[in-house]
Each structure stands twice: as structure tokens, then as C-alpha cells.
Design goal:
- The protein is mainly α.
- It folds into 2 domains: about 1-125, no CATH class; about 130-240, Leucine-rich Repeat Variant (Alpha Horseshoe).
- Helices cover about 65% and strands about 0% of the residues.
- The chain contains 16 helices and no strands.
- It has helices at about 5-20, 25-30, 50-60, 65-75, 80-95, 100-110, 120, 125-135, 140-145, 150-160, 160-165, 170-180, 185-200, 205-215, 220-225, 235-240.
- The protein is globular and about 65 Å long.
- The mean pLDDT is about 95.
Length: about 240
């Protein structure tokens, strides 16, 4: 049953008041790891100044809110309120039954345009998309990897982190190969990161991938991917550049 407008408005107001009461960072500190100036990837994103631990505390209080409340949070101009909505969504997904998980998976896909900064992607994609697609058709990831939207491409590769944790590396290498020529630094970093994680599970597969594609990989992507390789292994790959 859909909640009344008065109850909905009260919950939203309570959450926003709770967020305001937990502001502890200056604007400079809050945006330290984000590029928000005009022309950059996060242009227009605004920050209240709330730490992630404080957001997680708030999320515990509101962990059972309806999806319409989460949707309202995702519409916020403030990054932290969108992140709060995703933290709650991930919690509900992880605690829910199959029907609950399917509903939240679809909700996630329907709101991809609001998952629009790297912290939002990295805190949710593997928990929801990765988990849900584990035993299903994963072709949606290929579609996202070829999207014109930066964040959808990042979602595609970060979602495979769940597969990596289950020692299933094929889709990490598949999506990485699709994104080899991506022009954005945030994709270079994400792909390199996931390749590095895959290498923790199977170093041989990582080395094989790097030996094949290192000449095509942006330097940042390659550097991230090779971080855990030994001093003896790295020159072998670099020499092929």
C-alpha cells in the first residue's frame, strides 16, 4: 500500500534533518576526492559534508523505508543523500527474498541516471547488479559497457566485482576488453582496479590478458592492473609496449 503524502513528507523531512545534523565536513573537505568544477565529470554535484560512517548510521534508522522514499533521495542534488538512498537500497536487497531482490534490481536499472558519481557506483553496482546477475543472463553488462553514459560504463565493470569474489573472472576480462579504448580516466582506473582484483584470484589469467592487450591499454589502466605483480613480472609486460 502506498503511504500517504503526509507520512511520505514527514519521513523525507526527518531524513533531511538527520542529514543536516550530521554535517561535519567543510565544502572543501567534502569534495576533496571529487571533480566538481564546470567541465569535469562531477560538475554540478553538490555535497553537504557528511562522512560515510555517519550516512551508514542514518541508514540503519531508515533501513525499512519504501522505495518511493529511496527514489526521492536519489533525486536529491546532494551526493550524500543519493548515497544514503543507495546504502538503504543495498541493505534491503541483501536482506530481502527473491521477489524483493528482483524488485530492487529493476528499481536500480530504472534509476541509473541518478547513480552519477564514482562513489555511488562503487558502493552499489556489485552488491545489486553483480549479485542479481550471478546466475542469470549477463548481457545487460555488455550493453552498459557500450553506453554513451560514463557512469553506466563504470557500473558495467564494477558489477563484475561480485563475480570476481566468486572466482568467476570471464566477465571481468570481457568487459575490460570492451572498455580498452575508453577515453575517460575514471574508466581506466575502474578497469585497472577490477583487473587487479581478478589477478588476486588468478594471476596467470591476468598476466595473459595484459600480455595480449597491454599495448592497447591506457597507462593508468595498465598501472592499476599491474600493482600487485612482482618486480620481476612487470618488466616482462612493459617490454611489450
Amino acid at each position: 500500500m502506498k503511504m500517504s503524502n503526509s507520512i511520505f513528507s514527514k519521513i523525507i523531512m526527518d531524513i533531511k534533518n538527520e542529514c543536516a545534523a550530521n554535517v561535519t565536513l567543510s565544502s572543501k573537505d567534502a569534495t576533496r576526492f571529487f571533480k566538481v568544477l564546470e567541465g569535469s565529470y562531477g560538475a554540478g554535484d553538490e555535497f553537504l559534508g557528511i562522512t560515510v560512517p555517519n550516512l551508514r548510521k542514518i541508514a540503519k534508522t531508515y533501513k525499512n523505508v519504501d522505495l518511493e522514499v529511496i527514489e526521492e533521495l536519489l533525486q536529491s542534488k546532494y551526493n550524500e543523500e543519493r548515497l544514503l538512498g543507495l546504502i538503504i537500497l543495498v541493505h534491503q536487497y541483501q536482506q530481502g527474498n527473491h521477489n524483493c531482490q528482483e524488485e530492487r534490481f529493476q528499481f536500480y536499472l530504472n534509476n541509473l541516471n541518478r547513480i552519477n558519481n564514482w562513489n555511488l557506483v562503487d558502493s552499489s553496482a556489485h552488491h545489486i547488479l553483480g549479485h542479481y546477475l550471478w546466475d542469470k543472463d549477463r548481457s545487460v553488462l555488455s550493453k552498459l559497457a557500450t553506453s554513451d553514459m560514463l557512469w553506466e560504463r563504470r557500473i558495467a565493470i564494477v558489477a563484475t566485482w561480485y563475480f570476481i569474489r566468486k572466482s568467476d573472472l570471464d566477465w571481468t576480462f570481457k568487459i575490460s576488453s570492451i572498455l580498452l579504448h575508453d577515453r575517460h580516466d575514471l574508466i581506466h582506473k575502474a578497469v585497472g582496479w577490477m583487473l587487479r582484483e581478478a589477478g588476486k584470484k588468478d594471476e596467470g589469467q591476468l598476466i595473459s590478458f595484459l600480455s595480449r592487450y597491454s599495448k592497447q591499454m591506457p597507462k593508468t589502466m595498465l598501472r592499476y592492473a599491474m600493482e600487485r605483480l612482482s618486480a620481476e613480472q612487470k618488466p616482462t609486460i612493459i617490454s611489450k609496449l
